[in-house]
């Protein structure tokens, strides 16, 4: 059984790491040899969607992910250009050797592009984190999610909300597997390995005395006046506490052009996973427009203020420590006043966010093989033995 595991952008790497480890563990425990009926062979494919070191290479090293079997080197460009390159190059991979299952994660361009290509080549698709919805069609990620889920065969979901979304869209219960959250597998598996970033000592930060901020969505960073108002309101609302802002070079260029500076606003380069999670774990709160970070703060019990009008992860609000603040700069100060007064809500950890999601995924794949829902396209042939 050959499984293609697709990774294209930073969030993907955190989600695939525990799956690869679970596959290797299952093979070891089964004692099956490569090429046998029950052996799970995987082919790790890096699409190259994010290609700088902090966005990809360093993550593979820190999370113990093996070097990809291939890199499609799709590079940058418009979404259409990037999608086209990924599809063309992944098609070539499948023409050379067709996999039995294409496993995609999350909602980036690579997820959609490889799913469409695989489906047209007759390869079944498994979507890890399937079924989440924001209902916001201005988000490219929402288009990627819905397009991918419309052709997915097996859904590995993070919540009952996602399960309900899929059922409402006509997906059968036999296709839905509620497994939990592989990103949380990675988080819990690395809490003892976190690395203190240099900015902590440089700024003399103590536990619970600073904020962490991330901003990347075009609605927040591309409108210069709005970005300036957001940052100024955040700085004022944080009072005298420092705000550590790991900022993408593109966003930093915009900020520098706007002349936004304050003694308590500390810019850093993008951080590696182990350094960033250290910073979040010991912060007072996180201010973000990211989706994935709201999951991590929920599990770590860190207050999170999300600068968005909607979320595809409602469980981080109904159960977790996250609150939607909106994108209006005027809404920031009241939220920060609530936090600073000690009135922020406490949260709980959603069901099955326990570090075992990847094990459940592999268990379901093995069951699908046993019941015939997943079948190899052709018997495995070891090319070295044929020489």
Automatic annotation (TrEMBL):
Q: Tell me the domain of life.
A: Bacteria
Name a Pfam family for this protein: Epimerase_2
The protein's UniProt keywords, in alphabetical order, are: Isomerase
Q: Which GO terms describe its molecular function?
A: isomerase activity
Repeat found in the keyword field: no
Q: Which residues form the UDP-N-acetylglucosamine 2-epimerase domain?
A: 39-365
Family the entry assigns: Belongs to the UDP-N-acetylglucosamine 2-epimerase family.
Name of the featured protein:
UDP-N-acetylglucosamine 2-epimerase (Non-hydrolyzing)
- Whose protein is this, by species? Rhodohalobacter mucosus
């Amino acid at each position: 059984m050959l499984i293609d595991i697709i990774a294209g952008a930073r969030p993907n790497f955190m989600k695939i790491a525990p799956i690869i480890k679970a596959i290797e563990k299952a093979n070891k425990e089964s004692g099956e040899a490569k090429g046998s009926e029950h052996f799970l062979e995987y082919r790790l494919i890096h699409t190259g969607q994010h290609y700088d070191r902090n966005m990809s290479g360093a993550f593979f090293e820190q999370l113990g992910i093996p070097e990809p079997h291939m890199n499609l080197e799709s590079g940058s460009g418009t979404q259409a250009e990037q999608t086209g390159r990924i599809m063309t190059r992944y098609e070539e991979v499948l023409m050379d050797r067709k996999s039995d299952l294409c496993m995609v994660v999350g909602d980036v361009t690579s997820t959609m592009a490889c799913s469409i290509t695989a489906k047209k080549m007759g390869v079944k698709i498994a979507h890890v984190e399937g079924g989440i919805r924001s209902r916001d069609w201005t988000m490219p990620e929402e288009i990627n999610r819905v397009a991918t889920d419309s052709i997915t065969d097996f859904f590995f979901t993070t919540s009952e909300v996602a399960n309900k979304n899929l059922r409402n869209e006509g997906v059968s219960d036999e296709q839905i597997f509620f497994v939990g959250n592989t990103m949380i597998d990675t988080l819990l598996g690395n809490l003892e390995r976190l690395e203190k970033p240099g900015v902590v000592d440089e700024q003399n930060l103590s536990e619970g005395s600073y904020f962490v901020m991330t901003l990347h969505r075009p609605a927040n960073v591309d409108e210069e006046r709005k970005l300036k108002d957001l940052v100024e309101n955040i700085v004022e609302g944080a009072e005298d506490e420092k705000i550590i802002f790991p900022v993408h070079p593109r966003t930093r260029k915009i900020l520098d052009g706007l002349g936004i500076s304050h003694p308590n606003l500390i810019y850093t380069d993008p951080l590696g996973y182990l350094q960033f999670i250290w910073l979040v774990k010991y912060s007072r709160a996180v201010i973000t427009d990211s989706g994935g970070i709201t999951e991590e703060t929920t599990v770590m019990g860190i207050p999170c203020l999300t600068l968005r009008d909607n979320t595809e992860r409602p469980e981080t609000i109904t159960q977790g420590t996250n609150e939607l603040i909106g994108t209006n700069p005027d809404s920031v100060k009241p939220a920060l006043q609530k936090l600073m007064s000690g009135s922020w809500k406490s949260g709980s950890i959603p069901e099955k966010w326990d570090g075992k999601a990847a094990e459940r995924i592999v268990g379901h794949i093995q069951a699908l093989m046993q019941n015939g829902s997943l079948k190899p396209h052709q018997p495995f042939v070891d090319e070295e033995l044929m020489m």
